[in-house]
Amino acid sequence: MKFYLKRVLVTICLLIFAWILWQSLASQTKRPLIATPTRSHLKSGPNGPEVRHDGAEASKRDLELYQKIYCLINEDHEIPCVKTSNDNSVYIPFNFIEKYFEISGKIVHRKGGKEVFEWNHSYSKVYFPKQSYDSGLAFLWFDNYNVEVRDRVRCVSAKAGVPISSQWQARGHFYPIQIAQFGLSHFSKFLTVGQPRVVSLDSGDFFNRKAVTYLIPSDASLKRVLSEDNQQQKVLLINGRDLVIKIKRKSNNDLTLAFDVKVLTNFSLTAVLKSDAHSSAEYRVTYSSIDKDIEIISNHVIYGFGGSSNWRSLTRDLAIDLQKGVNIGSKKSAIKTRNMHIIRIEMNGNAFVDNIRLMSSAHETYAKTAADWFVDNQEPNGGFSIKVDRKLSNGALWLRNGWYSAMAQGQAISLLTRMSRHTADHRYLECAKKALQLFYVDSKDNGIRTKFIDQYVWFEEYPTIPSTYVLNGFIYSLFGLYDLSLACNDTICAKAAQLYRQGVQSLHKLLPLFDSGFGSLYDLRHLGLGSAPNRARWDYHSTHINQLLFLNTIENNLLFQTTAKRWISYMKGYRAPHN
Ligand SMILES: *[C@@H]1O[C@H](CO)[C@@H](O)[C@H](O)[C@H]1NC(C)=O
Ligand SMILES: *[C@@H]1O[C@H](CO)[C@@H](O)[C@H](O)[C@H]1NC(C)=O
Ligand SMILES: *[C@@H]1O[C@H](CO)[C@@H](O)[C@H](O)[C@H]1NC(C)=O
């Protein structure tokens, strides 16, 4: 987006510059010079100026037609504009309009090379539900999300298998909302993509001769030994340095690598990647028994999975891991991973290794890893605390390290209930039920619940005092409550149903307060602070719309429908009528 904006700005500045140059030259020589490209943009509809291309005569006419005029805008800005002499139309440079009206535009090339200038009010997109919301199926529109590529994700931890957030704290923390979204997006993608293509390279008993060859230095060893845990199966015992598994065949661009490892002293496994396009460049991603989350050593990315001596499974998206490393390292650049393939695996150290395989994706594994993270990290009160201080409104509102979020609780429930149905693992449902407890605890007691003018219950994404009433986080928490209400038939799920119902009633009552007449408000913090309202930027505005559209498939609520419709129109610049 930024890149395009810059290009538009530069183009427009050049056009204006060319025009001024032309004007000044023309006024000196009193003779029409070259026709400038500005003309094509000034060309207007049936009543506008007529532009012809028949040499000096036409250029002269153009010159007389387009005159410089200053625009004085609300007494605040004075900018050079263009006036047409035949009809006194005034043309204002778009780079001014763009900032003034918060819109964006760019010159685009249509098929056949024709240039058009295109402008949109919103840079965001509405996802219309393809079917009714279903607690067992894809979560909302999240199959479109790729959480780990976001800037706010520092990297995916090799130790925990879930993203580490750099939001609000550069060194990183586990942010439950991000982890839930990671899980929900992969769960949703799994339902569309299905089981991945898997090529087993070596599983101790089975060695894929078609796919790999080994290069083992004379002072290193690779043995196939019976597994301590399962005496029926063999595993690899690695000892030494620079053991290489050469990949003989191109791996279909399958860049998900998985292996199991039990470290004896230390161990590292490096995937060496090569791109078709830049045939000489090799990229290295290492998984090592170090404790550090991520380390960059001159273009070489190292992920630490820790020194634990238990068996563990790693499933890694090499493209993401490589890109994250490059982003953190000094060379901030996008690596084209589309035509990359893995050419070799190098191993160092002393460890048991098993089940080395390449896969086309691992959405189900990632969803499960995320759900397991919630099971393993749930606190006695059922919460998943956020371990950073958070300041809002320049410090007027704050949350102290260890706060909870209704959005984290809700999205965790949405993930856990789905995984519970998918796997029939009772731990997930128990975890989801326990996560409900905080919905009864008020913000002032380090919970997530507040009320609007002592009447309408509200679940807070940021449980500040005074309350903020963040809209999108609240609605996400409602989807969580809805999912839990259908996940069992006991009293806890009945309680979730009751909370959901109360929440929908509050939303129905308060939704109009979030309408600014030309956009939506992100929250209602201004009521408590007496500050300016906090307008939602377009991607949050479209999130509000998406949420209302999906919620309406459950509720069939006329207010949700009409509000969504009006809010969609705001994305094209429409405004609510005034008196
Ligand atoms: C305007 O919106 C359309 C549809 O989403 C998109 O294809 C186009 O790139 C947008 N143009 C600009 C300048 O943002
Ligand atoms: C791994 O252990 C060996 C033997 O203890 C040691 O020589 C080597 O430096 C270690 N490697 C790493 C990367 O720690
Ligand atoms: C709850 O009970 C209803 C009605 O008997 C049944 O249709 C539904 O499948 C049950 N739900 C669960 C999660 O057991």
What helical percentage do the residues reach? 25-40%
The rounded Rg comes to: 30 Å
**Number of beta-strand segments:** 21
Report the principal-axis shape: globular
Q: Structural class of the helix and strand makeup?
A: alpha+beta
Distance between the termini: 36 Å
Total DSSP helices: 14
**Largest sheet report:** 10 strands, mixed
Look at the structure and give the mean pLDDT.
89
pLDDT < 50 runs, ≥5 residues: 24-52
Bound molecules: 2-acetamido-2-deoxy-beta-D-glucopyranose
Strand content: 15-25%
Q: How is this structure best described in words?
A:
It is a single chain. The chain is an alpha+beta fold and 579 residues long. It has 14 helices and 21 strands. Strands 8, 9, 10, 11, 12, 13, 14, 15, 16 and 17 form a 10-stranded mixed β-sheet that branches. Strands 1-2-3 form a 3-stranded antiparallel β-sheet. A two-stranded antiparallel ribbon has the order 4-5. A hairpin with a 3-residue loop joins strand 20 and strand 21. Helix 7 packs across helix 8 (406-423) and helix 13 (538-555) packs antiparallel against helix 14. The longest helix is centred in the first third of the chain and has 28 residues, at 2-29. Mean pLDDT is 89; it is low at 24-52. One 2-acetamido-2-deoxy-beta-D-glucopyranose (NAG) is lined by residues 487-489.
Summarize the structure.
By secondary structure, this protein is α+β, with helices and mostly antiparallel strands. It has 14 helices and 21 strands.
Comma- or semicolon-separated keywords:
579 residues, alpha+beta, ten-stranded mixed beta sheet, three-stranded antiparallel beta sheet, 33% helix, globular, binds 2-acetamido-2-deoxy-beta-D-glucopyranose
